């Protein structure tokens, strides 16, 4: 297959990485931060490959053991000759603990089996990456960028996806200018964009057309807009404002598990920018704050705002954001899984950035 197949090629064109006549490989890796794109890409690929999603055995990568996944893939059925499919969600830990076994399996997967790994990241300089590059499919499920070295989202590609996805999944006829309106209001989050397109489909006329005014009035619920405002308040150090807005959101019935990922996505960009600057200092390159935030998903007028917010936080504190977000994620999946304790953990993060 062509290496680095981006998920948009599958989702927009209904085209498998190996071509229209290619069968499914033994291993597929869908990697990238966008969980929505990972899920949609795999569902689409399985559908195009003729695999019934009900036949897929799913595993939690944080808890499952490789021996169980291996047995599922290697055990032949006496009554069914269809693909044996094992899908491992959040497979980063499974990969870390069983890299040699996965390398061996990927190089010579059992006939009729399909292993699907859903990963947050997958470095291209690893042996496993190179093995799967030759024998399986690698599907990049991150936001599209203008080049392999760039970390800034390609807004043009995102707008084309909004138009195509609106037509394919929501029966909407959007113009490029309307895609810009939607992207500006929601931000570069394909899961949220999908939800907003589904909502906008309810307002389309008989010809599946929307006016610009309808889009301005209805795109982005007050909750969606509030998430951006809360993230901005936290980044500005206006903790009282952030906590007050969070209280309103939770009082309206929003679950913390739905709020935290949106806020985390926004704050994570500051942590990434801080690490880029610190790394550049160690290598003697001295990357500017403006360049760093540009590499980490800010664009337009937000670049100057983000640079100022990063300066207010300070590199030392901003560099801890990724660790704090990881701690928050682990807490809400474990010790703080109840709504009340999850809210407490989020408030604690706000105080850390005060």
Automatic annotation (TrEMBL):
Q: Which UniProt keywords apply?
A: DNA replication, DNA-directed DNA polymerase, Nucleotidyltransferase, Transferase
- Does the record's keyword annotation contain Nucleotidyltransferase? yes
Tell me the Gene3D superfamilies matching this sequence.
1.10.8.60, 1.20.272.10, P-loop containing nucleotide triphosphate hydrolases
Tell me a GO biological process for this protein.
DNA-templated DNA replication
* Claim: Magnesium is one of the keywords in the record: no
Give the EC number(s) listed in the UniProt record. Answer: 2.7.7.7
Can you list the GO cellular component terms from the UniProt entry? DNA polymerase III complex
Q: Which reaction does it catalyse?
A: DNA(n) + a 2'-deoxyribonucleoside 5'-triphosphate = DNA(n+1) + diphosphate
Q: Which GO terms describe its molecular function?
A: DNA binding; DNA-directed DNA polymerase activity
Which family does the entry's similarity section mention? Belongs to the DNA polymerase HolA subunit family.
What name goes with this protein?
DNA-directed DNA polymerase
Originating organism:
Aureliella helgolandensis
